[in-house]
Design goal:
By secondary structure, the chain is an alpha+beta fold. The protein is built from 16 helices and 18 strands. Helix 1 packs across helix 4 and helix 2 packs antiparallel against helix 4. The chain binds flavin-adenine dinucleotide (FAD). The site of flavin-adenine dinucleotide has 35 residues, from strand 3, helix 6 and strand 10.
Length: 510
């Protein structure tokens, strides 16, 4: 760490102490005055001097400098207008410490970014964007199966590193989703019902907290175990900037993948069949089932196909037996069922990672979403107000029971342990759509989500967040809210890690 940085961290600590003595909180998220150019200069210099063990310097990128637009662009283009003051590409812990100290000292808001896929734009900011992407190294210990991954890695980096090892950590579907956001919010994938969520495989994490300390948190009492508990489902951006994660990997074997699409008939019966199979065999099969229109334009029941995509932990003939009910009910239009190596299966199942414009809501279902709920869903799909894109993700059921339910609701911060499916509802649009069209879609999504509450649990997946979600704190964290707020007080008493849906401090100290 450069002497400049050390001095600045020290100054920042002094400022914090003074603030605390006066009984005030450092208003880190409040922009009090125009940025001091020399403040940014100092940070840029510090970052240049902070190198990782390979000698790579960190870098501060300012508007109009090469790479700024690419580094600033979030996955959901809906938030692309939120332009950061500067972007700190951090190659190591010390750079992260320098950024936190700088933001506190300069009283600037900041946001943390890994893969940039937060649906609600919580990794965008008008202040300092702290980007951990350059920290993406992966070290696999073949003997113990423990894998340490830099907090900037994404699903694709994991797949590339694991492919030859015979091991895997259950992760997500989209290649460019970052492991930081994925893990901190839970981490669903096509292995979740058999092996658990990504956060369930976590054994340790390193993180820089608001006081500038780099901590190694584990489940062991006295080793920042509260921070470790919160890192398993407590949501990104709330307590610290994580710089690495250590997971227990599991062995992988050949699997069968499937992609089955039925013609637009008997949708409710097919969706019920698929749910029953999933509920009966969560350790064998992991499905993502949905109803979706074949084309852009008005959505009608007569154009809604049922599709299930997923992974089966057994040979193809056994899967065909398991799916005999829905395959016999209606002859599918597409029926791809293929046995293959685990990593080839992962490549088959990845999503195309659109850089789009979209809004989303999520819920959970315990047991199955029954006939009446599915009928209501179809009714809302038919009421979609229109737009330029085919709506591919209007109503999806992600299998989230099995091994996910084997963990208690309070054992980790991920509280949704009594559910069997995550329900996702989405609206998406393109630059062709006018503000009126976009607003109509968003109104539709809000009304659709509200009307489905009769059939779902009042819970939402923090990794499928929405700024318009009522009661978001309870919906994301349920009975774990009080503990998360206490942990917030313990690690971030000045509420430095703050965004529209960050964990608040306990009521008494607000
Ligand atoms: C196309 C697409 C496909 C998806 N597929 C899946 C899926 O299959 N399974 C699933 O579970 N989810 C999926 N998601 C949701 C995804 O898990 C969440 O959006 C996740 O939080 C994204 O993580 P990120 O690092 O890419 O995003 P970011 O936007 O960078 O981060 C997400 C949140 O975590 C914070 N954060 C980021 N890095 C850190 C850090 N190092 N320390 C502390 N806080 C940090 C950010 O500030 C932000 O609040 C998908 C999302 C998209 C857009």
């Amino acid at each position: 760490m450069s002497s400049v940085s050390r001095r600045r961290l020290f100054q920042s600590g002094a400022a914090m102490a003074a603030g605390a003595a006066l009984g005030s909180r450092v208003p880190a998220a409040a922009a009090l005055e125009a940025p001091r150019a020399n403040g940014l200069e100092a940070l840029a210099r510090d970052l240049r001097n902070l190198r990782d063990p390979q000698g790579r310097p960190s870098r501060l990128i300012r508007p109009n400098e090469p790479g700024f637009l690419v580094a600033a662009w979030p996955n959901n283009g809906r938030w692309a207008d939120v332009s950061p003051l500067a972007i700190a590409m951090c190659t190591g812990d010390e750079a992260v410490r320098a950024c936190i100290a700088w933001a506190r000292q300069e009283r600037r808001p900041f946001a943390i970014r890994c893969g940039g896929h937060n649906y609600a734009g919580f990794s965008t900011t008008g202040g300092l964007l702290i980007d951990v992407k350059p920290m993406s190294g992966i070290a696999i210990d073949a003997k113990t199966g423990l894998v340490t991954i830099g907090a900037g890695a994404n699903n694709q980096d994991m797949a590339d590193a694991f492919r030859a090892s015979g091991l895997a950590v259950a992760s997500g579907r989209c290649p460019t989703v970052g492991i930081s956001g994925l893990t901190l919010g839970g981490g669903w994938g096509f292995s979740a019902t058999r092996y658990g969520l990504t956060c369930d495989a976590l054994r340790a994490t390193e993180a820089v907290t608001a006081d500038g300390r780099l901590r190694r948190a584990t489940a062991k009492a006295g080793e920042d175990d509260a921070l470790f508990w919160a890192a398993r489902g407590g949501g990104g951006g709330n307590f610290a900037v994580h710089t690495s994660f250590t997971y227990q990997a599991h062995e992988v074997h050949d699997v069968t993948v499937f992609n089955i699409v039925w013609p637009a008939e008997r949708q409710v019966e097919l969706m019920l069949d698929l749910q029953e199979i999933q509920l009966a065999h969560p350790d064998l099969i992991s499905t993502r089932s949905k109803m979706a229109p074949a084309n852009a334009g008005k959505v009608t029941r007569g154009a809604l196909h049922v599709q299930t995509l997923g992974q089966f932990f057994g040979p193809p003939d056994k899967l065909r037996e398991l799916l005999a009910g829905p395959l016999g009910r209606v002859a599918p239009m597409v029926c791809e069922i293929n046995g293959m190596n685990y990593w080839a299966a992962r490549d088959y199942l990845v999503t195309d990672d659109p850089i789009g414009l979209y809004d989303i809501r999520s819920s959970y279902v315990a047991g199955r979403l029954g006939g009446a709920g599915l009928e209501r869903m179809i009714g809302w799909m038919e009421r979609w107000p229109g737009g330029s894109l085919r709506q591919d993700n209007m109503g999806i059921l992600f299998a989230a029971g099995g091994k996910v339910k084997a963990v208690g609701t309070t054992e980790t911060a991920y509280v949704h342990r009594k559910s069997d499916f995550i329900v996702e509802m989405e609206a998406s649009w393109s630059p062709l759509d006018t503000p009126e069209v976009v607003a109509a879609q968003q109104r539709w999504l809000t009304a659709y989500f509200a009307d489905m509450q009769d059939f779902v649990q009042k819970e939402s997946y923090v990794n499928f967040p929405s700024r318009d979600l009522p009661n978001w704190l309870d919906a994301y964290y349920g009975e774990n809210v009080a503990r998360l707020r206490t942990i917030k007080l313990q690690y971030d008493p000045d509420n430095v890690f703050r965004f529209p849906q960050s964990i608040p401090l306990p009521q008494a100290t607000k």
